[in-house]
Amino acid sequence: MKKLLFSLLAFSAWAAPALAQTGTTQNPNRIDGYGAPVSPSVPVSRAADETTIDIIGGYYQQTGSHGAVEGGRGTQQLTDVPPAIIVNVPLDTVSRLTVNVGADFYASASTDRIDFALSTPSAHDVRFHGDFGYSREQKAKGTIWGVGAGVSKEYDYLSFNVAGSFAKTSQDGNRQLSLAGQVFLDQVTLITPLELRSTYTSTNPNARADKNYGTDTRQTYNFTASYSQVLTKRLQAAVSTELVSQNGLLSTPFHRVYFKDNPDPNLAPTLGSDFSTRFPRAARIEALPRSRFKYPVSLRLNYYASDLIQIRGFYRFYNDNFGITAHTFELELPVKVSQFFVVYPFYRYHTQTAATYFAPFAQHSVNDQYYTSDYDLSAFSANKVGLGLRYSPVYGIGRFRVPGKNAQGLPRVMRLKSLDLRYANYQQTGSTIYTAENRADLKANIVSFDLGFAL
After folding, report:
1. pLDDT grade, residue 18 (50/70/90)?
2. Overall pTM surpassing 0.85 (yes/no)
């Protein structure tokens, strides 16, 4: 369930450039539902005075055998259907309003393991989100500033955010400096594993119905700076960083951790064939420091090899005070098959070291101050490969009337301007520093679409 909260990608290369890693591991091609759109921009090939509407959605499915709910073993099966609507409205010639609303309808087999019961309420959930941004441009000065706010809510999580941004473009349009800041204020319900609740005994079935979990908070402060420049007629470059400071609850309260030397017996219920074999020693709740600082740096290069082919490259270096160092490489190759039809294969490689506090199932000691068996914090490499298709004819794909009239008193017409389809396959491979049974093995398939309308 918390995988949804840490995924800060918007159907990979559609909504925005790849963000610096802000959670643990980013799920591939996930909707970036929260985070106010503080820098509204006009989608490519649409007039600046048009209201644009993007309907995006898809289907995400993953499998794996190292679920953190069961202490680093057990299912990681997850499916997600994440529809969203992004509306970009020009209020006048210099200001715009952006609205991003949507939901994640997901089913997570691993969260059934919190209570050792199938089809619990946490196994099927919905995350709703809404974000609102306003920007104003001063064309004579080449500046754009923006403000925004948003909210995200699900079964055990409530998040509010506020944001602001500023961008300065040179007079010749070849250089731009962008600055943005964002604050997230989160409240988390402390849902703990069944056998670790104060009301639990092996003969007390009512422990599953105990709703007095309590709450905790987390604050996240993001500062992003990027500088882009046109180097030649064919080459563009951008350098950016996203500094992140987090304080408060950074662990997940329903993640179990098992120890090699815990003298306490495991009082969890006897497990059925749908669950991992019960470990004889008791688990504890995941414990991580209450502060974290992340400092990634990235470089993006766009090269126009010809009128028909582009080469888009991206590299990111990531480090944090949890001990994770990561490198990410991305390559996208848009090929213009016809004047209106583009095919773009893409590939992403990511590798990272493990957090200081990570160890596989039953390898921690009870003397450790901090401990986790969440494989998002393990050492692994990941490959994502896929193909995208974009169709965007000059006069649109189709048009239809909508209620109301335009400024000339004529019936309003909505046009379907573009269609994007993407498929990606994602695979994690654990580091050889672990035994074969303790290596990450998450796999995912993602199908997504974007319908672009103009009014």
Report:
1. very low
2. yes
